[in-house]
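Backbone-to-sequence.
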């Protein structure tokens, strides 16, 4: 998902798959170290969008867990 967003944002800029994956991994990235502020802005926005989607999924899963735990029938366990 992040790779696709970053690839779409930086299409036709000549970055390799390795460079795109490096930017997402947080490694020393030629994309994020670029002297072109437009490239940096596009890359950072794509990464932020990806992180936002992931956190939304985490929040929704947490909410579902809380609601479902409240609805579970309480029983005493036999020892």
């Amino acid at each position: 998902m992040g790779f696709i967003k970053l690839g779409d944002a930086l299409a036709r800029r000549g970055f390799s798959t390795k460079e795109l994956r490096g930017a997402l991994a947080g490694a020393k990235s030629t994309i994020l170290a670029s002297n072109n502020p437009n490239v940096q802005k596009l890359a950072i926005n794509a990464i932020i969008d990806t992180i936002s989607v992931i956190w939304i999924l985490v929040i929704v899963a947490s909410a579902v867990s809380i609601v479902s735990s409240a609805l579970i029938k309480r029983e005493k366990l036999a020892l």
